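FAQ

Q: What does a record look like?
A: Structure on top, sequence underneath. For example:
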């Protein structure tokens, strides 16, 4: 058993007969009244995100998990195929267990969280950023760069992101996987 002081991002807990992963949390100590922890939890079975408030010091049931590195092989409908980089065993996961499936490129290394009790995969942690090639974007118009202007672009995985006007087709860009947003252009 853990307490609310052990809550951190990525912690897997059992709550309301379901397994949740802490997406974000905030310890709040108001001037009047007891402290509490405001959390955003993602269900690892249904993918739903809910907000919950725990009073400070409350016992929570944490789940023992282990992480393993897997390489993404290919998508097939709503299932995604992964291979363990240590023993080459392959597993398939549903699209709901992935946080950003549209940013996943073949050959990408991800971390999969497994429940140690029954060895069931719980969730997939993407790398903080991925490098993708722009496959389609409109040419930028010179002169309308008075502000931080962006334009829509499609990357090689089919995802659509907003990029600055100077990005062209064929450029490689670094994309933040948590927000799905442009970070920087990558030079070869």
């Amino acid at each position: 058993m853990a307490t609310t002081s052990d809550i951190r991002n990525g912690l897997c807990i059992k709550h309301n007969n379901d397994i949740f992963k802490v997406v974000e949390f905030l310890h709040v100590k108001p001037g009047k009244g007891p402290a509490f922890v405001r959390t955003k939890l993602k269900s690892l079975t249904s993918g739903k995100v809910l907000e919950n408030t725990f009073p400070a010091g409350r016992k929570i049931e944490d789940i023992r998990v282990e992480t393993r590195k897997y390489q993404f092989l290919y998508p097939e409908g709503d299932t995604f195929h992964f291979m363990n980089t240590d023993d080459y065993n392959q597993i398939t996961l549903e699209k709901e267990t992935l946080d950003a499936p549209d940013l996943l490129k073949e050959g990408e290394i991800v971390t999969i969280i497994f429940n140690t009790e029954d060895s069931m995969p719980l969730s997939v942690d993407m790398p903080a950023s991925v490098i993708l090639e722009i496959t389609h974007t409109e040419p930028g118009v010179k002169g309308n760069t008075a502000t931080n202007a962006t334009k829509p672009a499609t990357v090689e995985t089919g995802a659509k992101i907003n990029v600055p006007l100077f990005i062209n087709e064929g450029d490689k860009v670094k994309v933040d996987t948590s927000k799905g947003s442009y970070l920087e252009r990558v030079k070869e």
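Q: Is there anything notable about this one?
A: The domain at 65-125 is CATH 2.40.50.140 (OB fold (Dihydrolipoamide Acetyltransferase, E2P)).
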